[in-house]
Design a protein that fits this description.
This protein is an alpha/beta fold. 30% of the residues lie in helices and 17% in strands. Belongs to the AB hydrolase superfamily. Lipase family.
């Protein structure tokens, strides 16, 4: 018994040490590291300051040595909704003095939704998802707008900025827990493309700060370029929450015009229609040049990539996306997926809205 307890303590300590190596509070050494680290002093970051290292001593070379920008340069905004605020949002920011004035209810479920590259918040798809969620249950729904950090054409700068946004969400969640008694297990984070990895960073931050895991993260076709060949510290991973589910709708290499990750990275990974090309979408044949034609997350070149948004939104009330031949499966793709699901699933959809 003591040996088992010792192993558990050792494992927890090792995990904390590894995270502390990758997510660092300010230590005054920014000038020593020069171009390989940026330290941001901000009340909206964990402990009021955080350093982001991009040296080869860490795994964060995936941004091609672009440093994350600090919160004051990104103008990241959080829009709060519940059933009393369905049309007009309430802007919130971290810091217990700020959130104390918000209508946040710690007893309810909490859902964060983040967009990806060259998108904005609250985008129409985010508002549609919010409306479906509130139609089912009165909850805290927070839409994340990081459009300044996600703006093109420099994809790798946006990749770097996901770390800042994730840290800010982690700080907000810590404040919600401390001020409102919000249980972390009642938190559900969902992000599209780069937004998926933002939520992975947020989950890592919460664990680093509190030793607790949030309830669920849903990755909506998580971005593949700059992530899928890197370690779990850099991307969304099954370790980032108690339950991590992924909807892969554009799981091709960038050379084949794919924007999503090809690999299973969650507890449950759903590959609708094989996960590569979605019915009703035009053939995407530009190869790596498709990145240059990427106008927004609903552009023609990103049809399959954005299909994950509609599938998840429609799964809340309108559709069931069961694995083939298993009607009523608890492992149906989307909002109502059971947290016990493990493995890869291959549901079929139709080619027109609502795709079921």
């Amino acid at each position: 018994m003591l040996k088992t307890l010792g192993l558990i303590v050792f494992y927890f300590s090792a995990c904390q040490a590894a995270l502390n190596h990758h997510f660092m509070d300010c230590d005054g050494n920014d000038s020593i590291w020069g171009i390989l680290r940026v330290c941001c002093n901000s009340d909206v970051l964990p402990k009021g300051c955080q350093c982001f290292d991009i040296s080869d001593m860490t795994d964060f070379t995936n941004s091609m040595y672009h440093k994350p920008e600090c919160p004051e340069d990104l103008n990241i905004q959080f829009f709060f909704y519940d059933r009393a605020h369905t049309e007009t949002s309430v802007k919130i920011s971290a810091g217990q003095g700020n959130i104390a004035q918000t209508p946040f209810n710690g007893a309810r479920k909490t859902m964060f939704i983040a967009h990806g590259f060259i998108d904005y918040g609250p985008a129409p798809w985010m508002l549609a998802m919010k409306d479906e969620l509130l139609a089912v249950e009165d909850m805290n729904v927070i839409l994340v707008d990081w459009q300044n950090g996600a703006a093109g054409p420099n994809y790798y700068q946006a990749v770097a900025n996901t770390r800042t946004v994730g840290a800010m969400i982690g700080r907000l969640l810590e404040d919600f827990n401390a001020h409102f008694g919000m249980p972390f297990e009642k938190v559900h984070l969902a992000g599209h493309s780069l937004g998926s990895h933002i939520m992975g960073y947020a989950g890592k931050e919460v664990f680093r700060l509190t030793g607790q895991k949030i309830g669920r993260i849903t990755g909506l076709d998580p971005a593949g370029p700059a992530f899928e060949s890197y370690t779990h510290y850099v991307r969304l991973d099954a370790e980032d929450a108690r339950f991590v589910d992924i909807i892969h709708t554009d799981a091709e290499s960038l050379i084949s015009s794919g924007f999503g990750t090809r690999y299973s990275i969650g507890h449950a990974d759903f590959y609708p229609n094989g996960g590569k090309h979605q019915p009703g979408c035009p053939e995407e044949t530009l190869g790596i040049l498709s990145m240059l034609s990427f106008e927004d997350e609903y552009s023609t070149g990103a049809c399959s990539h954005s299909r994950a948004l509609d599938l998840f939104t429609n799964s809340i009330r309108k559709c069931r996306f069961d694995p083939p031949g298993i009607t009523g499966s608890p492992c149906n793709m989307g909002f109502n997926a059971d947290h016990s699901c493990r493995g890869d699933y291959y549901p079929k959809t139709t080619s027109v809205q609502p795709y079921c």
